[in-house]
Structures are given as structure tokens and as C-alpha cells.
Amino acid sequence: MNHSAEKREMILEKASTLFSQKGYFGVGINEIVSACDIPKGSFYHYFPGGKNQLAVAVVHDAYDKMEMGIRKNIFSVSDNAVEVFCWMAECLARDIENGREGLKSLIITFMGIEATYISEELDEASKEVYRKWEVLYREKLMACGYDEMHADQYSKMLLTLIHGNLISCWISKDSTNLRNIKNLLPNLLPDEN
Questions:
Q1: Taking a C-beta distance cutoff of 8 angstroms, is the pair 57, 63 a contact?
Q2: CA 166 – CA 105 distance, rounded (Å)
Q3: What is the pLDDT, as a whole number, of residue 130?
Q4: What is the CA angle 60-66-69, rounded to 5?
């Protein structure tokens, strides 16, 4: 990675952390510039559209990193959908228990919720990321043997079930609901093989 790409990545990471802690409206450009220890001109060099352009980039970057992690650490464990998504819930439960900051899926969610009030561009980026997320799950379900129609239905259910429980567990600081998914999934996700 060249210096320019490294600096842009650093700005994305710092902004992602700040946005996840304070929300879009709670973070100003001066705070981002200060956290990155860069001149304001450097910020605008990478993000001439300002904070809105940065927020769009943060949402896309968070999704890309989340997808890479899911493919490498979750989807690779099995070709059995129940095992895969139970493992996903288990990993997220561990993240909650370990107080892991910066869960990429939560950053996407928080930014997506605020996006409605910020800009059309950020709103569209958030919607696009959620569509890609469903496709990611659908493709894995199809690789596990589900036909396209069922994979489409189950991908939406899994995204809602797992991510909804993640939000609930994050707020309550209790991973029980995520851990309970392993008891629910065998009944909710019939074997297609």
C-alpha cells in the first residue's frame, strides 16, 4: 500500500471509530482532522466532498472489511448453513463479551439509520450495502445447497435474526440472545442437502 492509500485508510479508520462512538452529527471535520493528526487540506484532498463523502466511504469500507472477515472466518468453516450461521452468532457473541469496539456491522447500521436524515447519497450507500449483505448470505446459502428462492428468503431472515440480536446484545451488553440462535436455527433453517 502506498503512502497516499495508507493515509486515506487511516482517515477511514479514525472516522469509523469516531462515527461509531458519536454518530455522524456528533463528529466534526476538525475532530477528524485532529484525531488523524493531519492538516485540513489533506482531509479535503482525500474527501473533497467533506464529511458526507467520508461517511459514504466509511460505510463502503466497513462493509468490505466485514465481508472479507465473514468469507475468511465464518463461511469457510462449513458447507452446512446451520453450522455456518451458528458459528457466526457464536463469534459475534464472543465479540460482545470481549467488549470489541468497532464491529463493522454496527457501524454500517448506525450510519444507515442516521443516513435518512443526512443525505440521499449516504442513504443510497447504506441501502446498497444492505443489499450486498443479503446477497452475501444468499450466495452462501446457495453454496450450501439451497435453491435460489429459499436462499433469498432465508438470507433476509438470517440477516434480521443475527443482526437484530447483535444490536440487542450490544445495547444490553449480554450475549445470551446471540448464543440462543444455535437452538433456533435448526428449526428455522431446514436442511436443503
A1: no
A2: 9
A3: 92
A4: 145
In this structure, what CATH number is given to the domain that contains residue 117? 1.10.357.10
Q: Which long-range contacts (CB under 8 A, 24 or more apart) does 139-144 make?
A: 140/75, 140/81, 140/84, 141/81, 143/79, 144/79, 144/80, 144/81, 144/84, 144/192, 144/193
Match 458447507 to its residue by C-alpha cell.
Answer: 79
Q: Return the exposure string of 62-92: e unless at least 16 CB atoms fall within 10 Å of the residue's CB, then b.
A: bbebbbeebeeebbeeeebbbebbbbbbbbb
User: Residue 112 sits in which domain range?
Assistant: 52-188
Run of H or E including 9: helix 3-22
Q: Dump pLDDT digits (tens) for 69-127.
A: 999 999 999 999 999 999 999 999 998 888 766 576 777 888 888 877 788 999 999 99
